[in-house]
């Protein structure tokens, strides 16, 4: 369904559009001109979802640009580096990852420098929504025909080489991969990692962000250790010191697999394998990660084989998954609105348990509310007919984004912005939710 541009309040439309125009580089959108001056993987997927309301062609280019840096083994790297940006502007920079050399055996592109990690697979869902915004234009350009084989290869990598637990779910091998970098959920698995020596690298993020809002030096030292070890193994998916099955990443994979079924039907391929894979993944998600006692999905530490006893927002994101049992949906909704997350009492959803021992309302993923996770949860609530909460969350995202000047994340109690401002996915997703109240679920 095509969405009319005049359905969003003019102030929201104009201010969100201004952020997306300012952050556009000519082929893709940077999350932030200062803190994040390259192209990020799941950022581009969320950005494309909002861009479809401004320019379907630009939304298509956003995804095609990212997929153009795909590796031969199917992985979509979490950063695609802009060669015109100085290496000192961001760390780890291209000379740290050395993807074209260290990743050659895994099919890293020779002419484009990337990271070797991945991020949650929102891309097929984004491609499907971009197509649905203007099917005629999509068909004229052959958009789905071009991206479909790349998306299939991407999902095959995640469910093949990254099925480290052997039960069908994809696993993440670095805290940056689930997208929730310094979540307290990772504290236990990270405690096994010896950090690199202090002073052996320079954190460029502290040039543009308040240290009180950013991960600690100890965490960063462990991140660098894991990334360097992965690089030095040629980005081979074996012998990982950190490996987790994350319910948020797997929920987005399932939603995108359902989207791939729709894409397959449009391009003349068989949608049945995608539906079958989505069903298998859903079964594994419920069997491996669902905690019926506490009404939340848990991350699983693949190394120890045990669930991680922390409540993070990723454990609520499987509301996005179609066809969950009614008792699971009810329990998730009770957890979301209960004392640990307090949706309805608070406008947005904190990234970590409000009653958790490591909760911090301003430090990155250790408590602040993020707009992309709210978008996912709003979509899930609407899918299951929980319209009152969905409508309230939708309004909170739009108003909170504008009032915080499109902050990267906000204090869940006060709505005060933290991180960078003019953050692209905040603008894109606020725009998407502002555009209409009747087309939130179109897959």
From TrEMBL:
Family under the similarity heading: Belongs to the glycosyl hydrolase 63 family.
Keywords per UniProt: Glycosidase, Hydrolase
Alphabetical list of Gene3D superfamilies matching this protein: 1.50.10.10
Organism of derivation: Streptomyces composti
Any coiled-coil regions, as ranges: none
InterPro entries with a match to the protein in the record: 6-hairpin_glycosidase_sf (IPR008928), 6hp_glycosidase-like_sf (IPR012341), Glycoside_hydrolase_63 (IPR004888), MGH1-like_GH (IPR054491)
Occurrences of domain Mannosylglycerate hydrolase MGH1-like glycoside hydrolase (ranges): 36-426
Membrane-spanning parts: none
Domain of life: Bacteria
Protein name, UniProt field: Mannosylglycerate hydrolase MGH1-like glycoside hydrolase domain-containing protein
């Amino acid at each position: 369904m095509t969405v009319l541009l005049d359905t969003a309040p003019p102030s929201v439309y104009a201010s969100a559009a201004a952020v997306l125009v300012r952050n556009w580089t000519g082929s893709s959108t940077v999350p932030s001109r200062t803190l994040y001056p390259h192209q990020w993987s799941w950022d581009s997927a969320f950005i494309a979802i909002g861009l479809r309301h401004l320019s379907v062609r630009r939304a298509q280019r956003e995804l095609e640009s990212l997929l153009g840096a795909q590796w031969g083994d199917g992985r979509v790297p979490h950063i695609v580096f802009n060669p015109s940006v100085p290496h000192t502007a961001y760390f780890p920079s291209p000379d740290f990852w050395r993807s074209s050399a260290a990743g050659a055996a895994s099919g890293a592109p020779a002419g484009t420098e990337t990271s070797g990690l991945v991020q949650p697979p929102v891309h097929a869902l984004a491609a499907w929504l971009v197509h649905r915004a203007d099917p005629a234009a999509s068909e004229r350009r052959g958009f789905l025909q071009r991206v479909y084989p790349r998306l299939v290869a991407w999902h095959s990598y995640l469910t093949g080489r990254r099925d480290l637990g052997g039960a069908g779910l994809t696993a993440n091998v670095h805290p940056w991969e689930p997208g929730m970098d310094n979540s307290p959920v990772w504290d236990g698995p990270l405690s096994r990692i010896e950090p690199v020596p202090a002073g052996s690298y320079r954190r460029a993020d502290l040039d543009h962000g308040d240290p009180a809002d950013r991960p600690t030096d100890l965490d960063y030292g462990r991140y660098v250790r894991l990334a360097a070890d992965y690089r030095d193994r040629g980005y081979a998916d074996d012998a990982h010191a950190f490996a987790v099955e994350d319910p948020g990443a797997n929920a987005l994979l399932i939603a995108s697999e359902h989207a791939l079924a729709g894409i397959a039907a449009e391009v003349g391929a068989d949608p049945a394998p995608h539906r079958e894979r989505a069903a298998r993944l859903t079964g594994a998600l419920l069997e491996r990660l669902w905690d019926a006692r506490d009404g939340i999905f848990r991350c699983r530490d693949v190394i120890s084989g045990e669930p991680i006893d922390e409540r993070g927002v990723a454990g609520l994101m499987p509301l996005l998954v179609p066809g969950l049992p009614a008792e699971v949906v009810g329990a998730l909704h009770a957890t979301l609105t209960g004392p640990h997350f307090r949706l309805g009492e608070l406008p947005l959803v904190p990234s970590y348990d409000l009653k958790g021992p490591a909760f911090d309302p301003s430090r990155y993923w250790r408590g602040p509310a993020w707009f992309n996770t709210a978008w996912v949860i709003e979509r899930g609530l609407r899918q299951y007919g929980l319209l009152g909460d969905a409508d309230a969350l939708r309004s909170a995202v739009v108003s909170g984004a504008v009032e915080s000047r499109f902050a990267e994340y906000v204090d869940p109690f006060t709505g005060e912005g933290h991180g960078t401002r003019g953050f692209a996915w905040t603008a894109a997703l606020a725009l998407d939710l502002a555009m209409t109240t009747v087309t939130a679920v179109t897959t």
